[in-house]
């Protein structure tokens, strides 16, 4: 029921914070509360270490509790008012009309109250059942958990046939919305999302510190890769394949085994007693009760599922209707198909997107799509084999659309046709979507119907199943492998003939031939059907992008020396319109982060593009929780020898510049205790500098004071390097060594999500400005698009924002709590520009020093800073 302004909630003074909140935390919670209550959109910046997660939890959940109580009170008060204000009238006709209207209103209110009561009763019953299950310790049923070995002959080739496709899609009526679905859309809940499951688990651990733990109903949604407990499927690493296999097992009927002759022909099909359905689909509601009765992260849910022998994936989705908080990764909210697949409704909900500093780039990435020549060739090979196998069994309609899919794949391979001899220089070209569709000659196809055909007939799933089991009727040997390769080579030759109008020599262009050979060599499609995932899914994903607003995207065609190495990419230029449904449907959308500058980017390029007026956008930015004297940020314009620091592309590789940064590091390592983290603009430049330092004894000089570490290339080595770095710092106490130096990269593995608190990060050094490659065709097109749609300077602003957002994330790795202290050196004279300084985090502005003339004051400030903290920490 709608409520008047007089019913608006005002922020309380008590938010059930686990301890006495600081002033900035209280301000954060009150602003968050008001933004949600007024159905506005918020941009909240709170530096790491200021209790941002706890402020979000206590602010949002306090509002939700008050809102739920308010909704019931409004209904009850409205019912009382109607009864009190019902006065008799002399006009019997008016009295009857009024009585009918009153009766109708009363029925509506009672119905809504009844729904609330039913929901509350369901919650009570759920908690009661959950307690009983906990007492029973959810002992798994041995029969349900039986994992018999899979019968490789358990296959019926008729299951590979496509279901009949109904192409009458022009008259696709909206499905009737059930009363339960209607009720579900009226429920208000908090939807919290972040980048990774580890960040979501950390958020959940913060809830455990509060009083909200006892009666908050929370669901942590994750993919099948996180939640699947079926031992038959756990070996599958490709998410698309796992999804298809899971659905296949749910739809499985009574198993059949197949007898074959020596040549692989089917002789007889026999019924088998072995179950093919997933054994973990039972007792879903029981596990759902457990999930809702306790606050559990992804690991706890997975463990509970294993213990109960029940699928956590479907149990979490079953839990959504009664959940107050749903936590899940970005993709599952920002991507419409993923959101709909999870059954999550946004209407009336509050969407909180944490770590939102790169939201626009994330949305662009999620809604872009790329297909390689390798995938196109493999998909064409698989589809051709599939078509040949069942040619006489397809309906006319299915065969028509199957041929269309094959033709489009041919058209895309033609676009990526291998280069002629002597022309091996790679090229990248940009096209509008409509130009690409016309030039590739696919404009006469209805992509909407074609995609519906692929989805409705489960073409990718059928094709995958066919490739998995094709060895039962095709003899896979070296001769077959050669035939497949030859077929693709002939196919590419045919494309060349059509394009040039000339007859091509029997020896097909060696590069194109090598592309085909590379796809088949060592792994025939029949033997490795999971190669590169499911190539057809990548192609349909790309085709769905072509169905979007043509003005919002571009097509990148990158041609390499072979077809297989080339690719076609759909690039989304306007990310805001891709998530306009999130902005329109949700009650309120909150963007939160430690560093949200430049905030104007979110206002102008997200909310305003989606039609949100400026008066509905609230911004909140607080200072750091640490005292001013605990932060020492300095812009360093000159080095120890007086050389101006300019790490622009043309000058950064000069020996003079590298020597100067070496002198700076030696000086800094002499006066800064414990850990120093030095960020470079790129991996290439870090490698170049390190090799120069190593060759010219700079590393040797630094090592007299600090042991030197480098960011590893492999993500799997990060934990080891960090452990060694930490150990070196701890072991340096009371020795000639005074800590360690870690070379890292802005935007790399150590620049986000990792904390260098206390002794691990007493100084953070940013060498140069990490601008992206200005010659990148994708960046050029993006800047051009922004200048055309957002103003002549918009492209340049976007370019600078990309750089400074990356810098701000690296700077934020240090100072993680109130008693922490650290220095930050921005080493490049370009940081002294006023408009660049404004893009730094606000908590740095008050303390920021700009040393333009000499390096001496920089070193003096560092010495003074650390001597002060050495005295105060004793």
Automatic annotation (TrEMBL):
Species for this entry: Rhynocoris fuscipes
Basic and acidic residues bias spans: 251-274
The protein's name in its UniProt record: Helicase ATP-binding domain-containing protein
Location(s) in or outside the cell: Nucleus
Source organism, top-level taxon: Eukaryota
Occurrences of domain Helicase ATP-binding (ranges): 11-406
GO molecular function: ATP binding; DNA binding; DNA helicase activity; hydrolase activity, acting on acid anhydrides, in phosphorus-containing anhydrides; iron-sulfur cluster binding; metal ion binding
Upper classification of the organism: Eukaryota, Metazoa, Ecdysozoa, Arthropoda, Hexapoda
CC annotations in GO: nucleus
Chief subcellular location: nucleus
Coiled-coil ranges from the UniProt annotation: 65-133
Assigned protein family: Belongs to the DEAD box helicase family. DEAH subfamily. DDX11/CHL1 sub-subfamily.
SUPFAM superfamilies named among the record's database cross-references: P-loop containing nucleoside triphosphate hydrolases (SSF52540)
Keywords of the record: ATP-binding, Coiled coil, Helicase, Hydrolase, Iron, Iron-sulfur, Isomerase, Metal-binding, Nucleotide-binding, Nucleus
Cofactor: [4Fe-4S] cluster
């Amino acid at each position: 029921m709608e409520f008047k302004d007089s019913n608006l909630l005002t922020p309380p003074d008590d938010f059930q914070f686990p301890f006495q909140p600081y002033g900035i935390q209280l301000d954060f919670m009150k602003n968050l509360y008001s933004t949600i209550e007024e159905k506005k959109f918020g941009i909240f910046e709170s530096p790491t270490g200021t209790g941002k997660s706890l402020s979000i939890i206590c602010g949002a959940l306090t509002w939700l509790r008050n809102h739920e109580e308010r909704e019931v009170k409004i209904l009850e008060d409205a019912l009382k008012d109607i009864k009190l204000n019902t006065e008799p009238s002399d006009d019997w006709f008016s009295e009857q009309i009024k009585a009918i209207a009153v009766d109708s209103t009363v029925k509506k209110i009672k119905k809504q109250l009844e729904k609330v009561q039913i929901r509350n009763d369901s919650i009570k019953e759920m908690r009661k059942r959950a307690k009983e299950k906990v007492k029973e310790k959810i002992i798994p049923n041995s029969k349900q958990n039986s994992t018999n070995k899979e019968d490789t002959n358990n296959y019926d080739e008729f299951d590979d046939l496509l279901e009949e496709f109904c192409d009458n899609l022009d008259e696709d009526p909206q499905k009737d919305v059930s009363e339960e679905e209607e009720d579900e859309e009226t429920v208000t809940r908090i939807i919290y999302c972040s980048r990774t499951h580890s960040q979501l688990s950390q958020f959940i651990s913060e809830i455990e510190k509060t009083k909200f733990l006892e009666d908050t109903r929370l669901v942590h949604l994750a993919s099948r890769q996180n939640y699947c407990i079926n031992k038959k499927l756990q070996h599958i690493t490709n998410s698309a394949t796992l999804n298809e296999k899971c659905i296949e097992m749910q739809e499985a009927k009574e198993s059949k085994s197949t007898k074959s002759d020596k040549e692989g022909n089917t002789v007889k099909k026999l019924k088998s007693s072995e179950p093919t359905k997933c054994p973990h689909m039972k007792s879903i509601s029981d596990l759902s009760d457990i999930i809702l009765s306790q606050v559990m992260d992804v690991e706890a849910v997975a463990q509970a599922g294993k213990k109960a022998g029940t699928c956590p994936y479907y149990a979490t989705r079953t839990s959504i209707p009664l959940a107050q908080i749903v936590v899940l990764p970005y993709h599952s909210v920002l991507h419409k198909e993923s959101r709909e697949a999870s059954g999550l409704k946004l209407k009336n909900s509050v969407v909180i997107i944490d770590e939102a500093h790169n939201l626009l780039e994330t949305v662009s990435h999620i809604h872009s799509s790329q297909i390689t020549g390798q995938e196109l060739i493999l998909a064409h090979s698989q589809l051709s084999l599939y078509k040949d196998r069942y040619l006489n069994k397809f309906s006319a309609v299915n065969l028509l659309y199957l041929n269309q899919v094959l033709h489009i794949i041919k058209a895309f391979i033609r676009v990526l046709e291998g280069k002629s001899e002597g022309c091996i220089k790679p090229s990248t070209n940009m096209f509008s979507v409509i130009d690409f569709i016309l030039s590739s000659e696919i404009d006469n196809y209805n992509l909407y119907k074609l995609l519906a055909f692929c989805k409705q007939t489960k073409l990718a799933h059928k094709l995958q199943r066919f490739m998995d089991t094709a060895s039962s009727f095709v003899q896979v040997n070296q001769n077959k492998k050669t035939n497949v390769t030859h077929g693709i080579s002939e196919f590419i030759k045919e494309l060349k003939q059509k394009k040039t109008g000339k007859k091509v020599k029997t020896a097909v262009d060696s590069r194109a031939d090598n592309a085909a050979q590379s796809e088949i060599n060592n792994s025939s499609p029949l033997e490795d059907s999971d190669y590169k995932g499911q190539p057809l899914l990548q192609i349909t994903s790309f085709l769905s992008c072509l169905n979007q607003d043509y003005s919002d995207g571009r097509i990148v065609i990158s041609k390499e020396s072979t077809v297989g190495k080339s690719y076609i990419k759909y690039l989304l230029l306007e990310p805001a319109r891709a998530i306009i449904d999130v902005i329109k449907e949700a009650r309120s959308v909150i963007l939160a982060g430690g560093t949200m500058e430049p905030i104007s980017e979110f206002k102008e390029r997200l909310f305003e593009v989606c039609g949100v007026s400026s008066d509905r956008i609230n911004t909140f930015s607080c200072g750091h929780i640490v005292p001013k004297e605990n932060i020492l940020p300095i812009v360093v314009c000159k080095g120890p020898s007086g050389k101006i620091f300019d790490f622009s592309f043309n000058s950064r590789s000069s020996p003079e510049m590298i020597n100067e940064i070496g002198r700076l590091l030696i000086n800094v390592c002499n006066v800064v205790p414990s850990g120093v983290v030095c960020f470079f603009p790129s991996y290439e430049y870090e490698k170049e500098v390190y090799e120069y330092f190593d060759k010219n004894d700079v590393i040797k000089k630094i090592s007299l004071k600090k042991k030197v570490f480098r960011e590893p290339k492999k993500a799997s080595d990060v934990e080891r390097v960090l452990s060694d770095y930490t150990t070196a710092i701890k072991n340096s106490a009371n020795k000639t060594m005074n800590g360690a130096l870690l070379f890292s990269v802005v935007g790399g593995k150590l620049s986000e999500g990792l904390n260098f608190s206390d002794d691990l990060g007493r100084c953070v050094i940013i060498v140069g400005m990490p601008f992206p490659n200005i010659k990148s065709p994708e960046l050029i097109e993006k800047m051009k698009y922004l200048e055309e749609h957002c103003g002549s300077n918009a492209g340049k602003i976007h370019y600078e924002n990309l750089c400074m957002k990356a810098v701000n994330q690296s700077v934020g790795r240090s100072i993680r709590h109130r008693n922490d202290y650290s220095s930050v050196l921005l080493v490049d004279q370009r940081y002294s520009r006023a408009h660049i300084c404004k893009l730094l985090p606000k908590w740095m502005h008050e303390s920021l020093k700009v040393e333009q003339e000499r390096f001496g004051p920089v070193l003096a400030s560092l010495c003074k800073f650390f001597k002060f903290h050495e005295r105060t920490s004793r």
